[in-house]
Amino acid sequence: MRRAILPLCLMLSACMSVPQDHVASRAATPDAASLPAMKAFKTARPEPPARSNRDIYRDFLELTFQLESGRRLERFSRFTGPISVRVTGNPPPTLMPDLNRLVQRLRNEAGIDIGRVRGRGKDANITIEAVSRADIRRFLPKAACFVVPNVSSLQEYRSARHSSVTNWSDLTERKRIAIFVPGDSSPQEVRDCLHEELAQAIGPLNDLYRLPDSVFNDDNVHTVLTGFDMLILRAYYAPELRSGMTQAQVAERLPAILSRLNPRGDGIAPHADAPTPRAWIRAIQTALGPGTLPNARRRAAREALDIAQARGWRDHRLAFSHFALGRLTQVSEPEFALRQFVAAERIYRAAPGTALHQAYAASQLAAYAISRGDGEEALRLIAPHKGIAERHENAALLATLMMLQAEALELTGRMDEAKAVRLDSLGWARYGFGADWAVRAKLREISALNPQKEPNG
C-alpha cells in the first residue's frame, strides 16, 4: 500500500514571523476564475540505474520474497500471459490519461504485455476502482491506496478481507487483483497511487527504505516509476522465471538475467547498504503517518535519528531522519529544525542518487532564507532543483519551488519576474495540490514567509 505519509512539501511556513492567517496585500492570490489551466507532464525521462548488478540482485530478492511486514514469501508469483487492466468506480478526469501513460511506459520500458480493457463491464486481470478516501481509511487507516489479490471490487474485498482469499502468501500465480485509489484526492496523489500500486500488483510486493531511487520505498520521495523500477519489473517478467519458483531457483537465474538486461551494472562495484531495522521503520511511520499526536510524532522522529546515528549510517536514511525531525519541530523549535534541514541537505549532497531528496531539502532551506529577507540566498538554493522536480514529474514540489522563487524575486526587487513565475506555478499547483482552495492556501502560506508582507512591513 502507499502510506499516507505527511506531504513533504507542507509546513514551509512554520518558520515565518507573521500569523499564518495573514494574507499580504501583494500576495497576488488569484480568485478561482483567474486560475490558469492545469498543467500535466508529457514525456517521461527516467534515468537508468547507476548501481552494481550485485546490489540489484540483492534488492530484487528482498523486494520479491518478503512483504512490507517482514513476513517471508515462499514462492515467486506473477501474471502469465497478457495483463488486462480496467477502471471502475468514480475516476477523476486525470486518471485515464495518467493510466494510459503508465501502461505505455510499462510496455516500452519494462517489456510487459499489458493493456487497458475498454468498458467497465468487461473482466480484467487488474481492476482499478476509484473510491473515496474515507472508504480507503475505513479499511486501512494509514493507507492512501492499496492493492489486494483475488478480488475485483471494494464490496468483494469487504466480504473476503479476513479470509485466506486475500493472502499474498498463498499466491503462486496472479490472476485477479484489485487496486483501490482515492478518486477525491489531488491528481498527483491519484497518479502516484497508480504507479506504486500497479507496480506492486504486477511485480514485487515489498518496500525497502534503503533504496534511494525507487517507488518501492515507503518514504514516498519518488512518486513515479524510475529507471531502477523498470529494470526490476523487466527482470520480474524475464522468460527465465516462472510463477511458483522458490527463492533459490530465482536466485540461480537472476545474475544472468541482470547481465542481459543491464550489462552496465556488471562493471560497477557493489555498495551494499546495511539492512533497515524494523525499529527505525516503526519510528518513521509513527512520526510521519496519520493518527499520532504531535508530541508522539516528535519523539518517534528523534528515536529514528538516534537509531540511524547508532547504526553509523551515512546514506539517505540518515538524511531522511534529520529531515523528518526538522519537519516535525518547525513550529516548536524553528532554529533546531533549521539545523536538521542543513544536516539533511549536506548528507543528501554526498549520497548518490538523491537529487530529488536534495530538492525537498532545498525547498525548506529556501523558506528559511525568505523568512530572513534573504532573497538572493533563496534564489541560489532553488535554482538547481526546479528541473529536478520537473524531471521526476513532481508537480507539487515544482509548484512549491516556483512559489518560493517568486517571493525571493520580490525580495530582490524583480517584481515582473516574480509575477510571471508565480502565475506559471499555478498550473502545476492545480495538478499537485488539486482543488482551487488548496492552491490558494499554498500561495498564502508561502507568501506569508516574506517579511516585506508583514502588516507593518
Describe it.
The chain folds into 2 domains: 2-41 and 274-453, Tetratricopeptide repeat domain (Serine Threonine Protein Phosphatase 5, Tetratricopeptide repeat, Alpha Horseshoe); 53-267, Collagenase (Catalytic Domain) (3-Layer(aba) Sandwich). It is 48% helix and 7% strand. It is of the alpha/beta class and 457 residues long. Helix 10 (316-329) runs antiparallel to helix 11 and helix 12 runs antiparallel to helix 13 (375-382). The chain contains 17 helices and 6 strands.
Give average pLDDT, whole number: 91
How much of the polypeptide forms β-strand, as a percent range? 5-15%
What is the domain tally? Answer: 2
Order of helices and strands: EHEHEEHEHEHHHHHHHHHHHHH
Identify the CATH class of the largest domain: Mainly Alpha
Q: Count of helical segments? A: 17
What is the fold named in CATH at topology level of the largest domain? Serine Threonine Protein Phosphatase 5, Tetratricopeptide repeat
Structural category is alpha/beta
The radius of gyration is 22 Å
Write down how many β-strands occur, each being a DSSP E stretch of 2 or more residues.
6
Low-confidence stretches: 13-28
Distance between the termini: 47 Å
Q: What share of the residues lie within helices?
A: 40-55%
The shape, in one word, is: globular
Q: What's the story with the biggest beta sheet?
A: 6 strands, mixed
The CATH superfamily name of the largest domain is Tetratricopeptide repeat domain
